[in-house]
Amino acid sequence: MDSPQLHIIAYCCEHCAYAAADLAGGLRMQYPPEVKIVQIPCTGRIDVLTVLRAIEDGADGVMAAG
Amino acid sequence: MAHIQDLLTAIGLEPDRAQMFNMSAAMASAFVTVAQEMTERIARLGPNPLRGPLDTLTDSERGE
Amino acid sequence: MIVAEQKSLDEIKSLIGDAERVLVVGCGTCVTVCFAGGAREAAIVAASLRMATKLDGNGKDVTDVTVQRQCEWEYLDEIAEQIEGADLVLSLGCGIGVQAIAEHFPRKWVVPGLNTSFMGLPTEQGVWAERCAACGDCVLGLTGGICPIARCSKSLLNGPCGGSEGGHCEINPDIPCAWQLIYDRLSALGKLDLLMAIQPPKNWKTSRDGGPRKIVRDDLRLGAEEE
Asked: What is the number of domains present in chain B?
């Protein structure tokens, strides 16, 4: 890959999107390696600062999934 | 999420860099779809301009 | 509480000008509970400024700290070192906080990050409304606990004006007529007779019309007994 490696932080609710991602893994489904999953107890845990800090520290994108 | 996107715009970044998605625990394919969708969207925007020069090296430049 | 609103990031950036080391100071009291200038907002403003100035090509050193109350010297003394180390202080306190910092640190340039709006309360989540105008001569005992100074657009003291229509104010139909509220409440409490007394012209000297105000309590002053 000769374009800069992208980093997308995916904050995933452990009851919804994290479980869905887990299932996707169990089913051997492929998703882009740029997406890095962070497990959180609930999307309500995400604050403006959570997103700002990820972007300030160099994340190219932030997704909240729940 | 709309508030975060307004803030990103005020800072001078693309609001699309932050997105919210909804799905249930059984929706494995939905997760794969939104992961692909988000990756394509960010690839169009390019790297975060706040990243330092070292962070934006390509894999081959970094010797990986 | 004192209710304030954050200035736009653009205005804050222009207030900061060419200062390189900026200290964002939050306040842990009124502006924390109205979500304008607490610890969380100070961290958000600091991160936003770091990113915005870096994108503009001149990344600034922006840090943040929050004190319990900006309006008392004691709390400001706790962060004296950080204030001295900064080129500029961006206060996220109300107008009192900004002035307290300016007065306590005479050589430090201080700018406001908020617009101080009024004294009021949250009527529902995300909505704040004015309740007190600090007139210095409280009339709430005559009006059933509803302030005609702060809540009547014209600060009338002897009943509604001719523009009160269907319980709303003629200045803005979204504002309930304070005198309608007063009448309804006194009526419900069986105290309408209170309205029969004609109120003499109010002495506005205790309000801002008498110039800047000051309260001196000799029973509390240190050394007052010996004087």
From this structure: 1
